[in-house]
UniProtKB/TrEMBL annotation:
Annotated ranges, domain EAL: 23-277
Species per Swiss-Prot/TrEMBL record: Brumicola blandensis
Superkingdom assignment: Bacteria
Full-length numbering of the shown residues: 353 to 631 of 631
Protein name: EAL domain-containing protein
Length: 279
């Protein structure tokens, strides 16, 4: 039994080593990939559930590989944050999202807005506001075309510095959404301080809202809280009609999820929007 235990241990150790090798090689590839602009943005529609129209699209990063697969953001974004590449990558995301939004507007989707995810690191180098300003100017967009999604964890530390930068973004006309709401630090004071206009309820609560009474109570409480604070709510990760119906019964008005669409490559979005937008 002891021998078995040891061989199991060795096996485990080897796979850990393998995992950290993979991480290391990925880490080394990030900077060159950012420089090469090897990344791609996919876009997932956010839907007004009261009339089934698309209100905006969320830009989601993909890292395409030579074999046709791609590395998901949950794998490489933490690494990009570790090595500092996230600032250049995040800058590219903002610029690319603006270029895309401008070209979509020019081709007839005149009201399209894009939501861009931000990492806390992008607030730490003090360049964010300038980057956004320049990206907007270069694409000929006004700030109202952009929404920024921030996770709660971002809002815990260095409150004042971040608050100031968020204020500058809203002065340009951009809006702010709190992402993954409910999963992080539960200090609700920041909801008022950060001038957010939206809360996005995390998928982990939405997914089993029909089977878990606790989750239903939680989602219902978040919707009520948002209403009292004058914030809009977007439910993430809606995959089936049952979940949609439950959310509608709780007067949740906006949603996002595979029920309507997975994140789409840039070129495929117009076809989807033509079904959903009058234009
Ligand atoms: P997120 O911001 O919470 O994005 C939502 C994630 O849920 C996306 O995963 C999306 O594809 C997925 N999703 C949407 N609807 C459904 C559904 O109905 N069912 C299921 N199972 N999943 C759904 P994705 O694209 O893999 O992105 C993962 C995370 O990576 C994002 O979570 C975000 O935190 C981060 N991320 C993506 N792009 C960027 C970026 O440009 N910058 C930063 N800083 N983070 C990004
Ligand atoms: Ca998001
Ligand atoms: Ca989210
Ligand atoms: Ca998430």
């Amino acid at each position: 039994a002891k021998k078995d235990g040891r061989s199991t241990f060795h096996f485990y150790e080897e796979s850990l080593e393998q995992a950290s090798d993979d991480k290391f090689s990925l880490l080394q590839q990030i900077r060159p990939a950012v420089k090469n602009q090897d990344f791609e943005l996919y876009y997932q529609p956010i839907i007004d559930m009261t009339n089934a129209k698309v209100i905006s699209v969320e830009a989601l990063l993909r890292w395409p590989q030579a074999d046709g697969s791609f590395i998901p953001p949950d794998k490489f974004i933490p690494l990009a944050e570790t090595c500092g590449a996230i600032n250049d990558l995040g800058k590219w995301v903002i610029e690319e999202a603006c270029r895309y939004c401008a070209s979509m507007r020019a081709s007839g989707f005149t009201d399209l807005r894009v939501s861009v995810n931000l990492s806390v690191m992008q607030f730490k180098d003090g360049q964010l506001n300038r980057i956004v300003q320049e990206a907007l100017a270069q694409s000929g967009l006004l700030g109202e075309a952009l929404e920024f999604e921030l996770t709660e964890s971002l809002l815990i530390d260095e409150t004042e510095q971040i608050q100031k930068q968020l204020h500058m973004l809203t002065m340009q006309g951009c809006t702010i959404a709190i992402d993954d709401f409910g999963t992080g630090y539960s200090n609700l004071a920041y909801l008022r301080e950060f001038k957010a206009s939206r809360l996005k309820i995390d998928r982990s609560f939405v997914t089993n809202i029909c089977t878990s009474h606790d989750n239903e109570l939680l989602v219902s409480a978040i919707i009520e809280l948002a209403k009292n604070l004058g914030l809009e709510v977007v439910a993430e990760g809606i995959e089936d009609a049952e979940t949609l119906a439950k959310l509608q019964s709780l007067s949740c008005k906006k949603g996002q999820g595979y029920l309507w669409s997975k994140p789409l490559p840039a070129k495929d979005l117009p076809t989807f929007l033509n079904k959903y937008l009058p234009h």
